[in-house]
Structure formats: structure tokens, C-alpha cells
């Protein structure tokens, strides 16, 4: 291991903003040979294919100004728009190839289309089309046959496009640069990775640094989809910098953070001086191109860094990229504008707190959550008449449904993941435990919060400890409410993501793995469309299906 201790001035509690205290990082030895590594980076585009023409121009201008550099993407190309719904990333990869990316780490949303029977055909096709390598050190694709032909060597120099590696070595201006990829360990809870498994980010990072250094590589980049300061229980970029000595640069995603300029971490978790690690992240949706210039001394130590986020809106679209985009846009506009025959007098729901609405689909019963659950129940009962109730996770409701004539585009924007209706057989005890999981963060937001279909009444108390919050769970039968019996068996409907254990619903996931879950077809947005068409009138207010006694006692 390199001796990288004891040469730095510690400041600002170990977190320095690049350019503000650079002098304290510079080696006193003028004989050191300096090397400047230029990086351009993006993250979390989430299906915004229409951002690429301006992004291409922004990159060209940045290369003219800063010179040649490595171009990296930190994940979540998939999910979020009609572009993705229609083209499943094949549009995005065409633009990424045009821009000349040097490495890509999959984000959690790259696994959203995972199918229990077919696996990840769309993701495998995205990888296969890529002219850049995929770095995935804490991901194991070997149990998914669709990736078999794409698996490359664990650590490789001069990697080929479309291959999956733990780490790669690329040459830049005569220097060998090591790059490895990490994705949040929480992916099995928030997406549908199926047979793709995830290991501990810290252990993997330490092992990768050791392997690079054994190869004589002293400039190491972690390309991550962990989040800048996300949930520490599953890791984030700040913790990675503080915990793992030897990572020089972290290019991150997942938390959609704007780091302008980059951040320097100069203290470990014990408050001891450590070699600096630079962290960069470029916001979201292709709105910015991150630029970073990192100067190393002759020992491979970071001694200076500068960087900025370039606003893409300040660039004109690149003509070639605009021409490539045109047929994709024409296709999705045709889909987007197709009306379904329903008109809403008011906008339905706010996906999160803080948007002018005190109710959130991740924390409260909402009219939109009710509609979605009701549509699932109606579809389920056409398949299985004895279906008791339907459950919709709040995290699967991504946008409000706007007032006016409802279009296919509106519905897909609300539910962009294309999840399918699934029936699960549960005991009453398992069903109650499922709601305990859903209410664990109440009254705070949680993507696993469950909306319920008409006829279900859930009463809980958010003042009680997690796991002890459900007061009553009842279902209307023949005009009266009956309590759920712990030892009785019930059939419930939900989407395949939640049924397979998404959003920490491990009880549902265990039942599904036990053979008690069956995907029965219909896509989520189609069920909502069909249900809206059946209604004479759409309710725009909650109906008291889910009640928190703490809120009632507060007089709200």
C-alpha cells in the first residue's frame, strides 16, 4: 500500500470545497512531477433522452476549454420518461456512444425491468449495444444467463465496449488510471435485480484498491451509484471516502446532488488526517455536465483540484444529435398525446411532501393511490374472484395525474416502470406484518408505504414503535367490516416489484419465493386507464381508508 498519510493540512472538519483551500494540499517539493487528470461526468438522466443534443454541445465546448479527458456516467439512465417506456434505453445508448463514454456503472433503476421469468433482457441489450465498458465491482451478474456473453475479466486493461468488469485500467496522457464501479446495496429493496446480487460496498472497494495498487496503479477512481450523503446504513460517497484509503476520486450518482465545485474529504471516520479524496456529482436529468481537473504529484497524491458544473441549457443542440433525436421524439409524442377518454376536473396527488401539498403518496392515503389500488383490485378479480384487497406502493407513483383530458403519456408518467399485476397468497399474520413494514417510517415518507383498495380499512398509531403500529386491519364483507384473522389465508393483489420484496417488503418477497405469488399480466398504467374508464365520477379526496390515530388525536 502507498504511504499516503501525514502530508496534508486538515481543514473544515475534513471536508474542503475545491479551490477554497487548495494551497494547503500542495506538496512542498517543487521537484514533484505533476499530472493533471481531466474528467467529464454525468449521472441520473432517468430517460431524459431529449437532453442529449445540448449535452453533446456542452461536452464539445468543455473539451475545447479543458482539453481531452475521461467521460464517465454514474448510473440511472433507465426509467422516468416516455422515451424509456418506449425504447428501454436503446435510444440513450446511441447518444452515449456518440459522446464517447469511457465507463458506466449501472444504477438501481437499470434493474427496474427485471422479470422473474425473462430476467433483464432490456439491460442486457443496453450493455450489448454500448461501445463503452460497464464497471460493477459489487455486482454479480453470473447467475443471470442473459449476461453470460457480456461477462469480461474481473480486472482488465484496454477494455472493450459492452463488457462487464469489476474494474478497468485506461490510459490517459501516458498515465494508467484505475476505475471500478459500486452500486447501492439497497438495490434489491428498491428495484428488481432478480438473480443479480450485490455485495458490501466497503469490502469491495478496499479489495479493488489493493488490486490496483498491486498492479502499480496509483490513480484510482470509484464510479459509484451510492448517493453523496444517502442512508448510511447502506453506504454513501462521503462514507466511502472516509472509510477506504487509496481512492483518489469518486464520481457519484443516486442522490441527484449538485456538487459545484467538487468536495474534498481529508479526514477519515476517526478524525485522522488522510490523503484527500475528491467527490463529484452533477445533479440530475442531464441538466449539467460535471467537469473536474485533478492534479497529482509524483507519488500519486492529489495535490490540487478544481471543477464546475456546466449548465446544459446554455448550449444549443448539436445538429447531428438533434437529427438522431427526431424520430425518437416523434414516436413518443404520438404515444404521449393519445387520449384515453377521461377528463379530470382537478389534479390528483403529490408524489412527495414539499410540493405545496401536505399529503404524500409515500406517507398518506391519497386519491390517486386509491384509484390505482382500486384498478388493481378490479383487474385481479377478473382473474381471481376471491382476491381480498390490492396494495400499491407509494414509491411506484412518480408524478401527479394532471387535470384535463387524460392521455397515455400522463398515465405512463405516473407509473413509468411497467410493473405487472401479481397475486400473492398470505396468512393474515403475514398481511399484518406487511403493513407494519409499510408504516415503519410513519409519519415520514417511505416508498414502501402501501395504499389500499376500496373496502379495506387500516387504523394505525405512528406514535408506537415500528412493528407495533397496526391497531386494526379490516375488510368489508357483505356490508360489514371484518377483522383480518391471523391464521386465515388471503389472496392479495399488488405489482410484481412489491410482490417480489421491493421497498423492503420481505414478507411479500418470502411468500413469492415460496411459490405463493403469480404474475397474471396487466401493466400498471393500463389498469389505471381501464378503471378510470369504468367510473362515472372520479373522487379527488381521500376516503378514510388509512387512518393514523396520532393525527386524529392532534385534531388534524
From TrEMBL:
Keyword Nucleotide-binding set for record: yes
Lineage: superkingdom: Bacteria
Domain Calcineurin-like phosphoesterase: from-to ranges: 38-257
Domain annotation 5'-Nucleotidase C-terminal: ranges: 355-506
Gene3D superfamilies: 3.60.21.10, 5'-Nucleotidase, C-terminal domain
Molecular-function GO term, any one: nucleotide binding
GO biological process, one term: nucleotide catabolic process
Protein keywords: Hydrolase, Nucleotide-binding, Signal
Protein name (database record): Bifunctional metallophosphatase/5'-nucleotidase
Organism whose genome encodes this protein: Halomonas salipaludis
Lineage: Bacteria, Pseudomonadati, Pseudomonadota, Gammaproteobacteria, Oceanospirillales
Amino acid at each position: 500500500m502507498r504511504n499516503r498519510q501525514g502530508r496534508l493540512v486538515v481543514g473544515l472538519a475534513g471536508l474542503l470545497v475545491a479551490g477554497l483551500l487548495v494551497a494547503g494540499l500542495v506538496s512542498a517539493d517543487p521537484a514533484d512531477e505533476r499530472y493533471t487528470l481531466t474528467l467529464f461526468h454525468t449521472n441520473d438522466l432517468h430517460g431524459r433522452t431529449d437532453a442529449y443534443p445540448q449535452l453533446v454541445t456542452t461536452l464539445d465546448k468543455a473539451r475545447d476549454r479543458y482539453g481531452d479527458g475521461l467521460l464517465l456516467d454514474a448510473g440511472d439512465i433507465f426509467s422516468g420518461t416516455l422515451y424509456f417506456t418506449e425504447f428501454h434505453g436503446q435510444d440513450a445508448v446511441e447518444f452515449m456512444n456518440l459522446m464517447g463514454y469511457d465507463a458506466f456503472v449501472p444504477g438501481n433503476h437499470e434493474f427496474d425491468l427485471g422479470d422473474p421469468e425473462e430476467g433483464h433482457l432490456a439491460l442486457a441489450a443496453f450493455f450489448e449495444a454500448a461501445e463503452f465498458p460497464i464497471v460493477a465491482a459489487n455486482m454479480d451478474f453470473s447467475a443471470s444467463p442473459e449476461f453470460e456473453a457480456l461477462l469480461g475479466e474481473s480486472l482488465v486493461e484496454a477494455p472493450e465496449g459492452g463488457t462487464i468488469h469489476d474494474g478497468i485500467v485506461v490510459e490517459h496522457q501516458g498515465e494508467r488510471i484505475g476505475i471500478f464501479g459500486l452500486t447501492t446495496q439497497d438495490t434489491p429493496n428498491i428495484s428488481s435485480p432478480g438473480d443479480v446480487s450485490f455485495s458490501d460496498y466497503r469490502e469491495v472497494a478496499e479489495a479493488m484498491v489493493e488490486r490496483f495498487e498491486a498492479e502499480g496503479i496509483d490513480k484510482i477512481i470509484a464510479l459509484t451509484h451510492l448517493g453523496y450523503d444517502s442512508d448510511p446504513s447502506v453506504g454513501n460517497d462521503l462514507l466511502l471516502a472516509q472509510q477506504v484509503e487509496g481512492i483518489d476520486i469518486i464520481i457519484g450518482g443516486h442522490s441527484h446532488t449538485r456538487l459545484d465545485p467538487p468536495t474534498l474529504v481529508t479526514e477519515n471516520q476517526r478524525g485522522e488526517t488522510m490523503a484527500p479524496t475528491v467527490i463529484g456529482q452533477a445533479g440530475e436529468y442531464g441538466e449539467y455536465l460535471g467537469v473536474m481537473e485533478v492534479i497529482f504529484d509524483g507519488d500519486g497524491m492529489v495535490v490540487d483540484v478544481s471543477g464546475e458544473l456546466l449548465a446544459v441549457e446554455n448550449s444549443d443542440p448539436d445538429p447531428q444529435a438533434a437529427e438522431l433525436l427526431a424520430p425518437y421524439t416523434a414516436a413518443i409524442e404520438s404515444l404521449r398525446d393519445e387520449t384515453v377518454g377521461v377528463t379530470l376536473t382537478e389534479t390528483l396527488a403529490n408524489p412527495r411532501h414539499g410540493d405545496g401539498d401536505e399529503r404524500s403518496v409515500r406517507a398518506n392515503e391519497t386519491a390517486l393511490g386509491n384509484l390505482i389500488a382500486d384498478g388493481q383490485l378490479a383487474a385481479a378479480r377478473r382473474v381471481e374472484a376471491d382476491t381480498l384487497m390490492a396494495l400499491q406502493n407509494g414509491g411506484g407513483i412518480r408524478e401527479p395525474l394532471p387535470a384535463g383530458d387524460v392521455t397515455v403519456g400522463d398515465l405512463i408518467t405516473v407509473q413509468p416502470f411497467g410493473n405487472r399485476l401479481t397475486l400473492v397468497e398470505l396468512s393474515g399474520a403475514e398481511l399484518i406484518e406487511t403493513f407494519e413494514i409499510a408504516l415503519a417510517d410513519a409519519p415520514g415518507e417511505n416508498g414502501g408505504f402501501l395504499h389500499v383498495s376500496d373496502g379495506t380499512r387500516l387504523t394505525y398509531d405512528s406514535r408506537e414503535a415500528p412493528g407495533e403500529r397496526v391497531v386494526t386491519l379490516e375488510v368489508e364483507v357483505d356490508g360489514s367490516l371484518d377483522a383480518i384473522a391471523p391464521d386465515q389465508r388471503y389472496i392479495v393483489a399488488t405489482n410484481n416489484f412489491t410482490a417480489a420484496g421491493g421497498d423492503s417488503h420481505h414478507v411479500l418477497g418470502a411468500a413469492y419465493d415460496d411459490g405463493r405469488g403469480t404474475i397474471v399480466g396487466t401493466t400498471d398504467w393500463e389498469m389505471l386507464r381501464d378503471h378510470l374508464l369504468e367510473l362515472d365520477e372520479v373522487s379527488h379526496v381521500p376516503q378514510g381508508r388509512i387512518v393514523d390515530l396520532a393525527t386524529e388525536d392532534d385534531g388534524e
